[in-house]
Each structure stands twice: as C-alpha cells, then as structure tokens.
Specification:
Shape: elongated
Number of strands: 6
Radius of gyration: 22 Å
Order of helices and strands: HEEHEEEEH
Largest sheet: 6 strands, mixed
Distance between the termini: 51 Å
Helix content: 25-40%
Strand content: 25-35%
C-alpha cells in the first residue's frame, strides 16, 4: 500500500506543478514585453509642470533606483548612449482632504501625482515609442494632526511613499506593457 500511496502522491504533485506551469500565472514585474535587443536605458529627469518643488527630482530618483533593482537594463547617463529612453513630465500634483475631525478640520489628505511618461526605442534609424501613458498616476493618503506642527513633515513622508510606489508601478507597467 505504501508503494501505491507514494505513487499517487507523486502523480498528484507532478500534475499540480504541470497545471500551475501552464495556467499563465507569473510574478508581476518578472517578465518583459520589451524587445530583447534593448540593453542600455537612460532615465531622463522628469520635467516639473506641477509647481510642487522637488517632486520631479524625487520621482526621477526613485524610478532610476527601481530600474537598478530590476537589473533589466544597464543605466547610462545620456540619451545618446542609450538604446531606450524613459522620459516625461509631472503634469500635476493634487492634495485633497478626505477625512475631517469634529470641528470640520481636515485630518487626512490624499496626495495624487499625474504624469505623462513614455519609453522610446532609439536603437533603430527612427525612434519608436514602445510604451506611453499620458495620465500615469499614483495616490497615497496621509494623516495629520491639525494642532501639530508636523504637517509638512507628514507631507514629505507621503511624497517619499508615493515616489516609491510610483516607481515600482511604473517599471512594472513598462516591463509588462500595461
């Protein structure tokens, strides 16, 4: 009975693995729909059209670091050295109160950044847009104590969290094409 039981268990395990392999599941951000010949990427500094000081720099820094973590490209310091260029602009930043205390003062805000981003293949005779999102956006909520003096500190923390989330989501979207 142990031999038959062991065989049944092995059959079930192998069948389960075969089904899982063929079902289309994969790790998010682990694959790429980008052409294989692209190896050098330049992340151009985002242009700030939002009026929110330094946000463009923070987003550019986090996007660059996310590409480094992924290891898909060798990052280069100029578009002329790159096979592909990621560029865009910060179109707007919106801070909206979403929760209020008993006196009607806002104690939670939602910070939203809206960008226009594209990835261009520069390896051929003419540039080809591989990926473009004219309204790529991310949001984060943060709480503030209306009587405290740390309002701006909380917003800075929210910008840091937003920048990291923005970078991860952008790189996954570019790699997977959606």
């Amino acid at each position: 009975m142990t031999g038959i039981f062991g065989t049944v268990i092995r059959f079930v395990a192998v069948s389960t693995l075969a089904l899982a392999a063929g079902c289309g599941y994969r790790l998010v951000g682990a694959t790429s729909n980008l052409p294989e010949h692209l190896s050098r990427l330049h992340v151009a500094p985002l242009v700030n059209q939002s009026g929110k000081a330094e946000l463009d720099q923070r987003l550019t820094e986090e996007v660059t670091q996310e590409w480094v973590r992924r290891g898909r490209f060798q990052l280069v310091d100029s578009a002329e050295k790159a096979d592909a260029v990621l560029s865009g602009s910060v179109a707007s930043v919106i801070s909206t109160p979403v929760r209020f205390d008993d006196q009607g003062r806002a104690n939670e805000y939602q910070l939203t950044v809206i960008t226009d981003i594209q990835l261009v293949d520069r390896s051929g005779p003419a540039p080809i847009v591989l990926w473009h999102d004219a309204r790529f956006m991310r949001s984060v909520s943060y709480q503030v104590d209306v009587s405290a003096e740390d309002y701006f500190d909380r917003e800075v923390e929210a910008i840091d969290r937003l920048s990291r989330d923005f970078a991860r989501a952008l790189v996954v979207s570019v790699l997977e094409g959606f």
